[in-house]
Amino acid sequence: QVQVVESGGGSVQPGGSLRLSCEVSGSSAVPVDWHRQAPGNQRELVARLIDGGAKTAYSDSVSGRFTVSIDSAKNTMYLQMNSLKSDDTAVYFCKAYQPGPNGPVYYFGQGTQVTVSS
Fold it and tell me: For residues 92 and 107, is the Cβ–Cβ distance under 8 A?
């Protein structure tokens, strides 16, 4: 059974930093994306690992401030968030990918809350 566990969220002042972690265990699933969802908004993709982390991609709203990385030995993905803004306040979710007999299978964790406020 695949488990996706996010951690590292919390409260921080504008301009501060946080580092989120996503540990994936069970079967052959690997972490691939960070998403976030603010109250009243749809879930949005903010960062993606491509080709196992050889490349990365970011939404315009976080590009230049967030960095996604992976420790493949630990099957753990990270999101370093710098220069945080109030608009970054959201629940952050990790998405994991596993190939399946009928196509790719995706899993989300329970999320970790990030609150940016003075």
Answer: no
